[in-house]
Structures are given as C-alpha cells and as structure tokens.
Amino acid sequence: MVHISPWMHVVTVGGAMPIDEILPLSGRFYVAHLEGQELPDEFSAFQNLQESLQFPEYFGWNWNAVYDCLRDLQWLSSDHHVVIIKSAERALSEDDTAREKFFRTLWRAGQRWSYVKRPEGITLSRLTVILSCAKDSVSGLTDLLQELQD
Fold first, then answer.
1. In this structure, what is the dihedral angle of CA atoms 92, 95, 101, 106, given to the nearest 10 degrees?
2. Distance in angstroms (rounded) separating the CA atoms of residues 17 and 2
3. Cα separations (Å) of 148 from 82, 98, 106?
4. What is the pLDDT of residues 64-123, one digit of tens each?
5. Fewer CB atoms inside 10 Å of the end CB: C or N, the chain?
6. Where are the alpha helices (DSSP H) in the chain?
7. Does the model's pTM come out above 0.70?
C-alpha cells in the first residue's frame, strides 16, 4: 500500500490493506464502490459518482459540481465516507484531461475533509479514497497523484 496522503491511498489487487491505518476506529461509515473500467469518459464518471454517492437532484454534471457534492455529503447519514475505486488505473484512461480533473477533484475533496477541526482538537479525515490497481500500475498512478500535491 502507498499512502499518498491521510485521505488517499493506493493498494494493489489482492494486497492486504491495514484498515486500522486508513479508517477511524469508530463511527458510521458510508462506502461507495466504483470500477475504473466503468468510467471510460466524463459522463460515465459523473453518472457512477452520482449513483454510488447518491448525489442530490441538483447535481450539475461537471467537475465543479462533483467537488461541491463531495465537500458536502450531508445527505448521507454517516460520520466517515469511503470511496473505493477498483482498477483505478483504467478510470478515464482515454481522456488525459478528464482523468486529471477526476483525480484532482477527489484529491481536493479529501484534502478539504481532512482539515475539519473538532472541539477536542482532533483532526479527522472524513473522506477516504482508496485506489486499487494492478501492481504494474502503482508507479504511474502514484506519480499522477504526487503531481496533484504540487
């Protein structure tokens, strides 16, 4: 497993995932599952995100709207939100611009959630993104995600 940030992780198919290092120990969780091969283009990505995260009717079907919805998620009765993308290396693989927007949107939303301060002084990551990919794709996916941090 590669920890990209407190809210984003890359795991390999069949690799063990130390859940206690990724998720808080308690609370209510909402887990959304996406398949990278089912996200060949922007429309499919928007549709799958909308369905898996139950975006509200006012969702605007663009990357800014995805970010706005991911920042909110108030309609889900959960304390923590987990987005698991299997075959993440295949997501929007034929459209480099949309691919970058997709991962940048997930990155920004996770970053936004990770800096939520609590009265007790604890910072919780309330949105966790787990990207599962083939072993030979880890390096390329990790490089792309590292670029988002700049």
1. 10
2. 10
3. 20, 14, 10
4. 999 999 999 989 988 889 999 999 999 999 899 999 999 999 999 988 887 655 555 555
5. C
6. 19-22, 42-52, 63-72, 96-114, 138-148
7. yes
